[in-house]
Please model this.
Amino acid sequence: MHRLVANTRKSFFDQGYLDEQFVQLEELQDNSNPNFVEEVVTLFYRDSARLLYNLDQALEKRPLDFNKLDSLMHQFKGSCSSIGAKKVKIECTNFKAYCNARNAEGCKRTFHHAKREYTTLKKKLESYFQMLRQVGPTEMACRPR
Amino acid sequence: MTVEEIRGGVLGNEIDRFPIGMRVLAVDDDPTCLKLLDGLLRKCQYQVTTTNQAVTALKMLRENRNRFDLIISDVYMPDMDGFKLLELVGLEMDLPVIMLSGNSDPKLVMKGITHGACDYLVKPVRLEELRNIWQHVVRRKVESKSKSNNDQDKSDQGTENGDQNVKSNRKRGIEDEDVEENGHESDDPSAQKKPRVVWSIDLHRKFVAAVNQLGIEKAVPKRILDLMNVDGITRENVASHLQKYRLYLKRISHQANMVVAFGGSKDASSYMRMSSLEGLGDFRTLSCSGRLPNATYAPSGMLGRLNSATGVTLHSLTAPPMVQPNHTQNKLQPVVPAMLPNQQNLNLFQGIPPSFDLDCQQYGNKPNTQLASFGSVEESRIFSGTKLADFNSIDESRIFTGSNTFTDPSAVLGSQSALKLPSTASESINLLSTSPTFLDNHSTNFSSNQLPIGNYNYPATLNGGFGSNITTTATVPLEPNGGGLVGDIFRNVNQSLLNQNQNHSQKSGQYNKQDYTQYSQNAFSTLASSALAGGGGGGLGGPVSHSRSNGGGLPLIHTEKVSMRSSDDSLFDQTKLQGGFVATNGYGSLDDLMTGMMKREQESTIIMDGEFGYDDYGFGPNDDSS
Model:
């Protein structure tokens, strides 16, 4: 099981879902902060849900308010980078580029990608944390490498 | 450990322990990022406080400047622009601020630098980066220490350097220390010199009086020291204090202008908004130089940063030659003392400052250049209801906060800040300063809203001639409790402002007049209550800002502005008076005060032409008619 957990985790990095920032989160987890990573990620989900919803709404408007879109996406991107959500962040960057170019189609397209990546990552992380819980607290303490 | 401790302590020892337990305030609207920051900072063994609202952060900081050593703030926040927060913190608290953003655009980084950030981090933040942030706190400490040694040089350089210093101060961390730290009192906890001289209100009053006597331009530490004739302070102490004072004045005037112009909400936000409107840069500059005398009125009509007659005078006073107000101030000064009829009045006065501040904020709307002179810059800060730290000298603003926003007014009063209001620019400040003193006396009174504001007939003509301002307050039947005082103060403030305004232009006058009427009613009540509650930091300022704090709710705000305008002038004048004002807590009857003021007004060439038609300041009810 430990190996499975370790491999899963490794795959995140290998496949580019997560980057070093996630490692930082893990490093901040210790006895005084035993569930730090999961807490941060949970916060991320909650906040992202809100931001994505706002983005969705903003993208429905006609004409598109690119400044607003940019600003919303900036927030979302910031959150992604905080937890190391690499793929999602890439899509966010693309989105912002399209925004600057005032390219509505590009924006919508990349937004879909971003949402997809986000959902994928969320699922993966959720099952990962579940795995961690099953493995037991010790797993958390000694981060499997 | 408090910043002061850190700063005051032996550098070596302090530094050894220092990074551990450093108190950091983290502000970021992104909860994910905030939590991450929290975790990272705790890992560095800092003591972390987090908030996702800039407004809350500002409030916490204003409540106790010494509670934190360092602030980390996001740039993009919904309730307040990070740069604004940065500026405000720099101005009011002079704490190191680190900006944080997901955007690494060099332009933003530059903006951070110009606004005084001591560092700029890009998200996601790494642990290694945070491990080193304590250096910014230490650097300030070290610089302030060395600055104190250089005080003499700096103060002697006078305005020029002051201005430059101010600007560089804003840069945070470099020369700022010099300027900022020079002042002992003020709002600059971090700028403490080793042998701290406590600038009590009394001391400050003497200082202000000396400065006024010499003329802000000619005031040099040695002469000030001689005039003050006080033992236990060195020329260096005076020099650094002077520097701060100058910055404060400048800042106030700038703020005043900004406030007026923007009529922002009474909070820092509004204040900041104003700044932004006016051109943050400008503001910042002014802010930096806040202490500097208003003389430097920025031409930008509205902002008239310089004199920003207490910013409150929102009337777009086109940068009136604020300098004049200074003159008037002198005149006013004598009046001021007179104005404070009695203890009660004092209370009023106290009350006023808070309101004053409030108004200032309100004023933001009006592009009032007029306000400028009074160091409105500071005032505007004050008005913002939130504790504007620098009303007079940062401390003052605190005083005003009596009403909610103001930091404990009584406390403020105690601080000499009141005195800080230098003659000219700080006129408004002075007023406020005086308030503090008053407040001290009557702080108890005020807190209970003694001022029955209702009675204040805030003469609409506040801005109108000098007299009008005064009258308005005068007419206010100062409540027994001190309402009178407030009224007086208000008037005085107005008067001063008026004078100031006159100098500047009548424009505000007109405005004032009308405003006053409305405001007077409201203003006073609001002011009175606030002033009282607040402890009447700047009585004068109080009325104005106090009501305003509502953010426009009160008509007072307008008046306040108006009055502020004049008040600014008056304040400036007042400041002079303030010296007297403050000193004489027990002013004679209001009438005397008013008369005094009026006389001053009349004497001064600035005749506010009574837009309100107040030439005759008879503060009685009939004064309003103008």
The interface with chain B takes residues 21, 24-25, 27-28, 33, 36, 39-40, 43-44, 46-47, 71, 74-75, 77-79, 81-84 of chain A (CB under 8 Å). Confidence is low (pLDDT under 50) at residues 139-143 of chain A. The domain at 2-135 of chain A is CATH 1.20.120.160 (Four Helix Bundle (Hemerythrin (Met), subunit A)). The first helix of chain A runs from residue 2 to 14.
